[in-house]
Amino acid sequence: MSDRSKIEWTDASWNPIRARNLKTGKVGWHCEHATTGCEFCYSEGFNKRLGTGLPYKPGHRKDIEILLDEEMLTQPLRWKKPRKIFVCSMTDAFADFVTDEMLDKMFVSTWNVCCGASAITAKRAAFPIASIASTTLSKRAKRMRAYLGTSGAVARNKPSSQRVVTADEILEGDAFATAFNLRGGYSPWPLPNVWLGVSAERQEEANARIPELQRTPAAVRFVSLEPLLGPIDLEDLVRAANGCEEHHSALECDVAVEDDQEFHGAVVDWVIVGGESGASARAMHPDWVRSLRDQCDRNETPFFFKQWGAWSPAVEPASETQEDEELRNVGLMLDGQYMRRLGKSKTGRFLDGVEHNSMPGVRR
C-alpha cells in the first residue's frame, strides 16, 4: 500500500489484487478496458513501465496470473492512524477476473478496521486499529451489486459470533463466513467505513451504472465523473424499463421512501469531477463542470472538483508572436470554448475562482 497518494480526494491507496507476468515473472496489476473512459488509463501506463509490462486488454489474461498479495491483504490490520483509502486504485475490484473469495478477504480486512476492535496478526500480537474510510470505485456496477446485494454476500454468510478475525484466518479461507453475521447484530451491514462508487464519463455510462449503485447496500455512495467527456445530468438519469424510458434523479429521492420500491430512498452522497491528464488527454468543457456543480448545490450534495487535467479554458487564443513552445500548447475549440493545453500541474483545480473540496463525513 502507498501511505501517500497524489489523488486529491484520498490519503492512500491499497492494492492487494496483483498480477504476475507468466513469461517474465514481473509482478504488477491487470485490468481490462470497459468503455471509452478507459482509453488513456493512468494505471495502465504505470503498469507498462513498472508492473507486468502488459497493456490492460482481455487478450493478455492468458499471459498473467491474478493473485492476492497476502502481505498487502493484511496491511489494514497494522494501520494505527485514520486515513481515507482508495481500494484497488490500479484495477477494478469487481472485474470478473477477481473472484468472490478474493473480495471476501478484502472486505474482512476492512471490517476489522471499521469495528475498531483489536486485531490479531499472524504472530498473534494484538494492537488497536483506527477507523478509516475505504473507498471502492468500479465500472462494473452490476457485479458490485450482485456481490454485495442480498443474493450475493448475505446469501453466502454463515452465522458466527466472532468479533475479530486473525490474519491467519483471512489468509486460510472462508474469511467471510468467519467474520460476518450480517443479520445477527454482530457486525454492521453495510459496513459503515466502506464507501462504494461508480465512474462515468458520459451520460450513457451514468444512465447504466448509477442506478445499479443506488440498488447496492452502502454506507456512502459516490460517483467519479472522470475523465468527464461530455455533459451529464444527474437529476435526469434515463434507463429502459418495462419497454419504455424511465427518468429519475440520482441526487434526490423523487418519491416518499416508503413508496420507493426500487431504490428505497438511496441517493448519491458525493460527486467527484475531473478532466483527463496525460499526453493524449481529451478536453473537458467548463460548462459541463459548472452544470454538475450547480446540480450538487441544488440538492446539497458534496461536490469535489479534482482537476482540469491537461486542458484548461482560455479567454482567447495565444497570439502568433508567442514562443513556439507556448504555441504548441494551444489546442482546440470545444463547443465554442477555447481550450489551452498546459498540463495538469499548471491547469490547477479552481472552477470560477473557487476550489471545491466538499466530502461526506467519515462514518465511524
Brief description of this entry?
24% of the residues lie in helices and 21% in strands. It is of the alpha/beta class.
- What's the number of helices? 11
Element-by-element helix/strand order: EEEHEHEHEEEHHHHEHEEEEHEEHEEHEE
Whole-angstrom Rg: 22 Å
Give the neighbour order of strands across the main sheet.
1-5-8-9-10-13-14
Query: What's the mean pLDDT score?
Result: 81
Quote the beta fraction: 15-25%
Total strand segments: 19
Biggest sheet statistics: 7 strands, parallel
Structural category is alpha/beta
Distance between the termini: 22 Å
Q: Poorly predicted ranges (pLDDT <50, ≥5 residues)? A: 116-131, 157-165, 173-186
**Which percent range fits the helix content?**
10-25%
> Which overall shape is indicated by the principal axes computed on the Cα atoms?
globular
